[in-house]
From TrEMBL:
rRNA-binding listed as a keyword: no
Protein's recorded name: HTH-type transcriptional regulator RutR
InterPro entries from the UniProt entry: Homeodomain-like_sf, HTH-type_TetR-like_transc_reg, HTH_TetR, Tet_transcr_reg_TetR-rel_C_sf, Tscrpt_reg_YcdC_C
A biological process term (GO) from this entry: negative regulation of DNA-templated transcription
Top-level taxonomy: Bacteria, Pseudomonadati, Pseudomonadota, Gammaproteobacteria, Pseudomonadales
Keyword DNA-binding belongs to the record: yes
Length: 206
């Protein structure tokens, strides 16, 4: 396959996945038809089936793609050792994707709420070991007295809940913000507030 064809394929798949995120978030898996996604991305339905045989295949690809994005957000756990830098970087990355990929966060939340019926055991293989590595690093910080004693999994849950709230409940956030989306300045303040609360809770200054 030529480089040009590879690039066309990559571009089409990315376009389909992003469009599918939006439609699945708005209509749910059961309420979504491949024709809806085709209309969203302005491609013939046959093009979708060329890349993804079934709606389930496409839905799974959306979910696994989101998991990979969030794993990339957490690379700071491997890159740095300073807990302040690691957690500040992680929270900012999570908040960024809550703002730029809110539909994806909603699709993920819906899958988790229903017990991961689509991902099933694939989720265990993709998520469990990854999370345990992050927990081990947090546990080491506690043992080294670099942060206050904390249950590592609970800390991760708090970060996920705080950051993804801005995507999963964006309509609620907008209502409370006088029916307006958060401005860049307001969103930056939100990032700083979440970061400050988390860090201070484990004995670190922001």
């Amino acid at each position: 396959m030529s480089n040009h064809k590879i690039e066309i394929r990559r571009s089409n798949v990315e376009k389909i996945l992003l469009g599918a995120e939006k439609v699945f978030a708005e209509k749910g898996f059961a309420g979504t038809a491949m024709a809806d996604i085709a209309a969203q991305v302005q491609l013939p339905r046959s093009n979708l089936h060329y890349y993804f045989s079934t709606k389930t295949d496409l839905y799974s690809a959306v979910l696994l793609g989101l998991l990979e994005v969030w794993k990339q957000d957490a690379l700071c756990f491997e890159t740095y050792d300073d807990p302040r830098l690691v957690l500040s970087s992680y929270i900012r990355a999570k908040m960024h994707h809550s703002r730029t990929r809110p539909h994806g966060s909603k699709v993920w939340a819906n899958e988790m709420i229903h017990g991961a019926p689509t991902l099933g055991l694939a989720l265990d293989a993709s998520l469990y070991d990854w999370a345990k590595i992050k927990e081990a690093k947090i546990r080491q910080w506690v043992q080294d007295k670099r942060i206050l004693p904390v249950e590592p999994s609970s800390l991760l849950y708090m970060i996920w809940a705080s950051t993804q709230h801005y995507a999963d409940f964006d309509h609620q956030v907008m209502i409370i913000n006088d029916h307006q989306p958060l401005s860049d300045i307001q969103f930056e303040r939100a990032v700083q507030t979440v970061t400050s609360v988390i860090l201070r809770g484990i004995g670190l200054e922001p």
